[in-house]
Hints:
The structure is a single chain. By secondary structure, the chain is of the alpha/beta class. It has helices at about 25-40, 110-125, 200-215; strands at about 10-20, 45-50, 55-60, 80, 90, 95-100, 140-145, 145-155, 160-165, 215-220. Strands 7-8-9-6-2-1-10 form a seven-stranded mixed beta sheet, sandwiched between helices. A three-stranded mixed beta sheet has the order 4-3-5, with no helix packed on it. It is globular and about 45 Å long. It starts with 10 loop residues before the first strand and ends with a strand. About 40% of the residues are buried. Catalyzes the transfer of endogenously produced octanoic acid from octanoyl-acyl-carrier-protein onto the lipoyl domains of lipoate-dependent enzymes. Lipoyl-ACP can also act as a substrate although octanoyl-ACP is likely to be the physiological substrate.
Amino acid sequence: MFSDTKPHPTRLCEFYNLGLMDYIQAWNWQRSLVESRRSHPELNDVLIVLEHPPVYTLGTGASLDFLKFDLETSEVPVHRIERGGEVTYHCPGQLVGYPILNLRHYRPDLHWYLRQLEAVLIQVLGLYGLEGCRIPGMTGVWVEGRKVAAIGIKVSRWITMHGFALNVCPDLQGFQKIVPCGIADRPVGSLAEFIPDIQIDLVRQQLAITFAEVFGLQLMNFS
C-alpha cells in the first residue's frame, strides 16, 4: 500500500497555467525542461497545465490495433511518444498536466508517483461531490464506471515528464475512433456529464492547488 501523504520539506514548483498549445510545441518544451534538470538537478520542479488541439498519442509500445482509422488518411495528427500506455486522445476541454519533478526529492518509486497523481485527481473530483475511483491493476481515475482521467508518464534518471489528462468538458467523439488506453469494456466520460455547468478555468486552479498540496509544493507564478 502506497501512502498519499505529501513529502517534506516543501519544494518550489514553477507553475505554467496555459491555454491551447500545439502538442509538438509542448512535447519539445518538456524534453528541454527534462534535459536541463538532468544536468542541473537543483533546478525547481515544474507543473504545466494546458489544453491541446485534437491529437492522438501512442505510448512507446502501443499497438496500432487500437486505432479504428487509417493512419495515412487521418485528419487528426498522431504521434508516438516516449510515455507508457496505449493510445489516447487530447482535445480542447481536457486539462492536461505535465509535471517535471525530480523524484529523488520525493520518493524514487514509480508506483508511488502514479498513485500520487491519481490522488490529486480524486481529490479534485471530491471538490465537486464526485467519487473518483481507482481500479486495481489499471492506472487512471473513474467516476461511476466512466474513465474521466488518464495517466501516462516517462521517467528518466528519476525526472518525470508527460503526466495526466482530465476530461472536464471535451467533445468525446474523438475517443470513438480508438480503443482508449486499450480498454474496450470501460467507457470514457467527462466531468461535464455529471456537472453540466462546470467551469474549466476553476478546475484548472483547483487542480494546481491540489497538486501542490499532495506533493508538498509551493507554486511559483500562481494567481
